[in-house]
Fold Cobalamin biosynthesis protein CbiX.
Amino acid sequence: MLVAASHGTSSPAGQRAVAGLVDAVRAVAPCHVAAAFVDVEQPDVPTALDALGESALSTAPTVVVPLLLSAGYHVHVDLAEATAEHPAARLAGALGPDPRLADVLAERLAEVGLGPDDGLVLAAAGSSDAAAVVDCRRTAALLADRLGRPVRIGFLSAAEPSVADAVRRERAARPGARVVVAAYLLAPGYFHDLACAQGGDVVTAPLLDDRPADARLVDVVLDRHAEALRSRAAA
């Protein structure tokens, strides 16, 4: 079984986008797929695991896959604690960093016509967890390799530099140039709205929007599930 655990959002567009990803995973996964949330929406992960029942958890390998782009507090604490209450369940790694996410980001940038003279800032949600910040910086490096150009990173909360500061630095480095903000965010909602207010000339769509979920995102979710199962078997 696969429990797809997203952050949760009050944004209807964000809810639809994440539900679309879960539905796309469900359509191809070799197991039962359930949705759960860390915050805002219901059911939360403990409730989702309880609903499966201990007998089901013990007879079918169950993996909680965080639909989160980096392994911050929600993964290391919230989801780890929720999963620990069910010894038969296993917690997978976060979706990022992963080269496939960088590929999707590159496509979002192509959609807004990123040019060689444009400044570029990768906007991540941010975290007080140093490991999550490292994950986001690794994604910036993957995107830089993918594009063959520098990528400046900024954070929308908790970490430095802020996206607004990163945009200002790009403007100073490239006088008169357009500054493009690549939204390293899973879905529409609060943080994407915030990214749009940081002074960039254009902001890309998040990884999920009103289009069908990208097959590469589906593959990343399935790979995290498979990795956790292999880890369980090797333990």
About this structure: The longest helix spans residues 215-234.
